[in-house]
Specification:
Elements (H helix, E strand, L loop, with lengths): L7 H8 L9 H11 L12 H7 L4 H15 L3 H35 L3 E6 L2 E6 L8 E5 L7 E13 L1 H4 L5 E2 L18 E2 L4 E13 L5 H6 L11 H30 L4 H15 L4 H18 L2 E3 L3 H6 L4 E5 L10 E7 L2 E5 L10 E3 L2 E3 L6 H10 L4 E5 L2 E5 L2 H12 L11 E6 L7 E7 L5 E7 L1 H4 L3 E6 L2 E4 L2 H16 L3 E10 L7 H4 L3 E10 L6 H10 L3 E5 L4 H10 L8 E4 H5 L3 H7 L3 E5 L3 H13 L4 E5 L5 H6 L2 E5 L5 H6 L2 E3 L4 H41 L8 H19 L25 H26 L4 H22 L15 H19 L4 H4 L6 H18 L5
Parallel strand pairs: 9-23, 9-26, 19-22, 23-25, 24-25, 26-27, 27-28
Antiparallel strand pairs: 1-2, 1-3, 3-7, 4-5, 4-6, 4-7, 8-28, 10-11, 10-22, 11-12, 12-13, 14-15, 16-17, 17-18, 18-21, 19-20, 21-22
Family: Belongs to the cation transport ATPase (P-type) (TC 3.A.3) family. Type IIA subfamily.
Pfam families: Cation_ATPase, Cation_ATPase_C, Cation_ATPase_N, E1-E2_ATPase
Membrane topology: Multi-pass membrane protein
Length: 884
C-alpha cells in the first residue's frame, strides 16, 4: 500500500508518530543517522589533489617548468631547484586560497539553506530543511517550499505548484483524505506534498514520508546530477583585463629579451629572464585573490547579520542609490502591540509593550476585566482567527508567525484568556489571508455544535461587508452614523501611527453553505484594534548615514497612509517637501507618469506587491540602482526585478529568499546599511590590490627594460624576479583584501555601475608609481654598479632589495584613495604582519649563506641599507601628498 492510499491514522502508526506531539528529539536524531541528511546528492567535490595540480595548469607556469627543465639539462641545477621550489610554494599558496574560498562559499550555502517548521516534543521548531527526518510533522503555508515528501494530514485551502515535477503550471488543490486507487502518478496524488514544490495558497500540515534521494524529486535528481558555478561581473571583467595584461606583459617581456640578446647577453640567460619576468609581470594570482576577497567579505557580512546569496550582489551594493524598504519589521521592531481598542463606541487602552504578557485593559483610567460587554468575545475572536503561536525562549516570549497575529494573542492573554480555549473550538473551514483580499476568515464550531464565521482584516474591507454592528445591548443594524463613527475611529488611530484591524463575525446555521463566495457577507462588525510597531533602534541613524552616502531610503508599506507618514516623520525619513503616494494613486498612474515624480516620493502607503514592481521599474528607468526588500511570496517578482533583491531571514518565505541576492538575518534596515558599507569596502579593497599588484609588476618590467635599453647588465636574475613575485605580491595583496573601510566610505556617492576598474585615476596611479619604482630600483643598481663594477652580485642584491622594499612601502600607499599619510599604517594588523613576514624572508635570502648562491645575493652593510631605504621611500614620499 502506498502512502497516499493510507489514512492519517495508519501513517501515524507506521511511522510511530502522532500529529499532536510529533517526534521526540531522540527519535529525530536516530532517524537522521538511519536515513541521512534531507538533501539531494550533488556532484562529487573535486579532490584536493586535483585542486593542487590545477595550480600548475597556467600557461606561464608551464613555460616556467619547461625553462626549469632546460636549466637542469644545461647543468644549472641550483637555478632549476630554486625555481622549482618557488613554483611549488606559489602552487601551495594558490591551493590554500582556493580552499579557503570554497569553504567560505560552502558555509554561505549552508547558512542560506531553507528552513522548515517541525513539531518536536509537542513544540513547533524551525530547523534547516536538511535536518528534517522521516516521521517529522511539518507545517507549511503560502510561499513555503515543501522540505520533503509529505502525506498531508490537514489542509486549509492548500494549493501547490508542481511544475518542476510534472510540467503542469497550474496549482494543485490538496486535501488530507486517503485515495483508494492504485498506481497513481505524482500529479494525481493530491493528498501528498512533494519536496521542493511551492505552496501557492493556503496552509496545511503533513507527516514526512520521504527525504533526500528517497523523494520524487530525488528520483529525478538521480538521473542527472550537475552543479554550475557562475562568475560575478567583476570576476568576468578582471578575466578580460587579465588577457589584456598578458598580451602587454608578453610584448614588454619580448622587448626585454630582444634588447638583452642584442646587447650581447647569452640567449639562454635572456630566455630564462624573459620567462621569469613574464611570470612575475602577469598577476596570475588576481582571480584567486578576488575570489578570496569576495568570500572573506561575505563572511564579514554574515557576522553583521547579512547573508549574500549571489556574489554579484557584493559589487552591486556599492552602486545602490535607492533602498526601497518595508516598514514593518525592517524599519520597526516587528513586535506589534495592541495599544487601543474601539468597542461599543468606547475607547479602551491596553498597557504593556512587545510580547510581554504583563498588561491590562483600561477604560478612563480604570482597569476592566473580561466581563466588560463584548470584550471577551472580541479578544477570543482575535485569538481563534490566528495562525501565530506564543513561544518562550531564554525566559522571553516570542511569536512564531505573523506579528499582527502575535499582538492579538498577547492582548488575549493580558485579558486572561488561555490558549487552552482552543480545545473548545474546532476549525471547520479557513479562507486564508492574501494581499488582494486583505482579510482572513475561519468557520469554527463550538462544544455545542454551533457554528460561526470570524473575519479579521482591513477596516475599509470589512466595513462595506458589515450590515450589523456590535453594541453593549447586542447586535444592531449598521446605520450611516455607525459607519462614520468607525471611519473616524480609524482616522484617529492612524493619526497616532497605529495600525488598524477590524474584527467581524456572523452566526451560521448548521446546514448553511460554506462556499467562499457567500460566507464573508452580512457580517457583524465587533470592534477595532489599534496596534503600534515601534521604530527599531539604530534605524534613524542608518537613514541619516545612507542620505550622507547619496543613497535615498524609501519606505514601502501596506499600512494606512497616515500611519506610514507618522513613522516616516519619526525616523526623519520624510522631508518637509517629500511626497507620500498611496496604492490608489499608484493604480491611476502609468510607469512613465510615476517616473516623472518618483524622485520626490519618500513613502508609498497601502501598496500591494504588484505596486512594488511598478515602483522598481520607474526607479530603474530614472537610472537608479535599486535595492528592494520583501518577505511575501508575491514580493518575489519585484525582488527579482530589482538590482539588489533583499529578503527577510526571519519573516521571509523560501520563495522570496530564493529570488533575492541578500538575506537579512535580523530583518533590520540598519543591516542593509552595514551591507552597503561592506559592499563598497570589498570593491575598494579589490581596487587596492589591483593597484598594488599592477604597479609592482610595471616596476619589475621597467627596471629590466630600462637596463636593456641602456646596455647595462641584468639588474635582477630570474630567481630574484620570481622571489619578488612570491614574497612581495602574494601576502600583502591578500592582506589588502582584509583592509577596513575608510572613514569617508559612506560620505561618497554611489559608484556608477558602468565604472571601469581603472576609473577615478587608478590607471594613472598604477603607471606613475610603477615607473618611479622601476626608476629608483635602476638608479640604486647603477650607483652600486658604478661604485663596484667587479661585483655584479652586490649590485643585483642592492637592486633586488630596493625593489622589494619599495613595493612593501608602496603597499601602505595603496590603502587610501587620498594620500599615503591619510591613514594610520598600523590599522590593518594583517598587512603589518604580511609586510614583516616579507621583510624577514628578504633578510633570510640576503644574509643566510646557504641561500646566497641560490638567489645570487650577498650581505649588505648599514651604508647600503641607508641608500636602499632612501630610494625605496621615494615613490611613496613623491606621491604621498597628492590624491593623484
Amino acid at each position: 500500500m502506498k502512502w497516499y492510499q493510507m489514512d492519517v491514522d495508519t501513517v501515524e502508526q507506521k511511522l510511530h508518530v502522532t500529529t499532536k506531539h510529533g517526534l521526540s528529539d531522540k527519535q529525530a536524531g536516530q532517524r537522521q543517522k538511519q536515513y541521512g541528511p534531507n538533501q539531494l546528492a550533488s556532484e562529487k567535490n573535486v579532490s584536493k589533489w586535483l585542486i593542487f595540480l590545477k595550480q600548475f595548469q597556467d600557461f606561464m607556469v608551464l613555460i616556467l617548468l619547461a625553462a626549469t627543465l632546460i636549466a637542469g639539462m644545461l647543468g644549472e641545477y641550483v637555478d632549476a631547484i630554486a625555481i622549482m621550489i618557488i613554483v611549488l610554494v606559489n602552487g601551495f599558496l594558490g591551493y590554500f586560497q582556493e580552499q579557503k574560498a570554497e569553504k567560505s562559499l560552502a558555509k554561505l550555502k549552508e547558512m542560506s539553506a531553507p528552513i522548515a517548521a517541525v513539531l518536536r516534543d509537542g513544540k513547533w521548531e524551525k530547523v534547516p530543511s536538511r535536518d528534517v527526518v522521516v516521521g517529522d510533522v511539518v507545517r507549511i503555508k503560502s510561499g513555503d517550499r515543501i522540505p520533503a515528501d509529505i502525506r498531508i494530514t490537514q489542509s486549509s485551502s492548500l494549493e501547490t505548484e508542481e511544475s518542476a515535477l510534472t510540467g503542469e503550471s497550474l496549482p494543485v488543490m490538496k486535501h488530507a483524505a486517503s485515495i483508494a486507487r492504485d498506481k497513481l502518478d505524482a500529479q494525481d496524488q493530491v493528498n501528498m506534498g512533494f519536496m521542493s514544490t511551492l505552496v501557492t495558497r493556503g496552509s496545511g500540515r503533513g507527516i514526512v514520508v520521504g527525504t533526500g534521494m528517497n523523494t520524487v524529486m530525488g528520483q529525478i535528481a538521480s538521473l542527472m546530477v550537475k552543479t554550475k558555478k557562475t562568475t560575478t561581473p567583476l570576476e568576468h571583467k578582471l578575466a578580460e583585463l587579465g588577457k589584456i595584461l598578458i598580451a602587454v606583459a608578453l610584448l614588454l617581456t619580448a622587448l626585454v629579451v630582444l634588447a638583452g640578446v642584442y646587447q650581447g647577453h647569452p640567449v639562454y640567460n635572456m630566455f630564462l629572464a624573459g620567462v621569469s619576468l613574464a611570470v612575475a609581470a602577469i598577476p596570475e594570482g588576481l582571480p584567486a585573490i578576488v575570489t578570496v576577497a569576495l568570500s572573506l567579505g561575505v563572511q564579514r557580512m554574515i557576522r553583521k547579520k547579512a547573508i549574500v546569496r549571489k556574489l554579484s550582489a557584493v559589487e552591486t551594493l556599492g552602486c545602490a542609490s535607492i533602498i526601497c524598504s518595508d516598514k514593518t519589521g525592517t524599519m520597526t521592531e516587528n513586535q506589534m502591540t495592541v495599544k487601543e481598542v474601539f468597542l461599543n463606541g468606547k475607547w479602551l487602552n491596553v498597557t504593556g509593550d512587545g510580547y510581554d504578557l504583563e498588561g491590562n485593559v483600561i477604560l478612563n483610567n480604570d482597569m476592566v476585566d473580561r466581563n466588560f460587554p463584548n470584550l471577551e468575545s472580541m479578544f477570543l475572536y482575535g485569538m481563534l482567527c490566528n495562525h501565530a503561536s506564543l513561544m518562550m525562549k531564554k525566559g522571553k516570549y516570542y511569536v512564531d508567525g505573523d506579528p499582527t497575529d502575535g499582538a492579538l494573542l498577547v492582548a488575549a492573554r493580558k485579558l486572561g484568556l488561555s490558549h487552552q480555549l482552543y480545545d473548545n473550538y474546532r476549525v471547520v473551514k479557513e479562507l486564508p489571508f492574501d494581499s488582494d483580499r486583505k482579510r482572513m476568515s475561519i468557520v469554527v464550531e463550538d462544544d455545542n455544535k454551533m457554528r460561526f464565521l470570524i473575519t479579521k482584516g482591513a477596516p475599509e474591507v470589512l466595513l462595506p461587508r458589515s450590515n450589523y454592528v456590535m453594541r453593549e445591548q447586542g447586535r444592531k443594524l449598521m446605520r450611516t452614523e455607525d459607519k462614520q463613527e468607525m471611519n473616524l475611529a480609524v482616522d484617529k488611530m492612524a493619526d497616532k501611527a497605529l495600525r488598524t484591524l477590524a474584527i467581524a463575525m456572523r452566526p451560521l446555521a448548521k446546514e448553511e453553505s460554506l462556499h467562499s463566495a457567500v460566507l464573508e457577507k452580512d457580517l457583524t462588525l465587533v470592534g477595532l484594534y489599534g496596534m503600534m510597531d515601534p521604530p527599531r533602534k539604530g534605524v534613524k541613524t542608518a537613514i541619516e548615514e545612507c542620505r550622507d552616502a547619496g543613497i535615498k531610503p524609501v519606505m514601502i508599506t501596506g499600512d494606512h497612509e497616515k500611519t506610514a507618514r507618522a513613522i516616516a516623520s519619526e525616523l526623519s525619513l520624510l522631508p518637509e517637501d517629500g511626497v507620500v503616494l498611496n496604492g490608489y494613486q499608484l493604480n491611476t498612474m502609468s510607469v512613465s507618469e510615476l517616473q516623472n515624480i518618483i524622485d520626490r516620493v519618500y513613502v508609498f502607503a497601502r501598496v500591494t506587491p504588484e505596486h512594488k514592481l511598478k515602483i522598481v521599474k520607474a526607479l530603474q528607468e530614472e537610472g537608479h540602482v535599486v535595492a528592494m526588500t520583501g518577505d511575501g511570496v508575491n514580493d518575489a517578482p519585484a525582488i527579482k526585478a530589482s538590482d539588489i533583491g533583499i529578503s527577510m531571514g526571519e519573516s521571509g518565505t523560501d520563495v522570496t529568499k530564493e529570488a533575492s541576492s541578500l538575506i537579512l538575518m535580523d530583518d533590520n534596515f540598519a543591516t542593509i546599511k552595514s551591507a552597503i558599507i561592506e559592499g563598497r569596502n570589498i570593491y575598494e579593497n579589490i581596487r587596492k590590490f589591483i593597484r598594488y599588484l599592477l604597479a609592482s609588476n610595471v616596476g619589475e618590467i621597467l627596471v629590466m627594460l630600462f637596463a636593456m635599453l641602456l646596455a647595462m647588465p641584468l639588474p635582477l636574475v630570474p630567481v630574484q624576479i620570481l622571489w619578488v613575485n612570491l614574497v612581495t605580491d602574494g601576502l600583502p595583496a591578500m592582506a589588502l583584501g582584509l583592509d577596513q573601510s575608510e572613514n569617508d566610505v559612506m560620505k561618497r556617492g554611489p559608484r556608477n555601475p558602468k565604472e571601469g576598474i581603472f576609473a577615478r585615476g587608478l590607471g594613472f596611479k598604477i603607471v606613475s608609481r610603477g615607473i618611479v619604482i622601476g626608476l629608483v630600483t635602476l638608479i640604486a643598481f647603477m650607483l652600486a654598479y658604478q661604485g663596484n663594477p667587479d661585483n655584479l652580485i652586490y649590485s643585483q642584491t642592492v637592486a633586488f632589495t630596493t625593489l622589494v622594499m619599495a613595493q612593501l612601502i608602496h603597499v601602505f600607499d595603496c590603502r587610501s584613495e587620498h594620500s599615503f599619510f591619510a591613514r594610520n599604517p598600523f590599522e590593518n594588523k594583517y598587512l603589518v604582519l604580511a609586510v614583516l613576514s616579507s621583510v624577514l624572508l628578504l633578510l633570510v635570502v640576503i644574509y643566510w649563506s646557504s641561500l646566497q648562491p641560490i638567489f645570487h645575493t650577498t650581505a649588505l652593510n648599514l651604508k647600503d641599507w641607508v641608500m636602499v631605504l632612501a630610494f625605496s621611500c621615494l615613490p611613496s614620499v613623491l606621491f604621498g601628498f597628492t590624491k593623484k
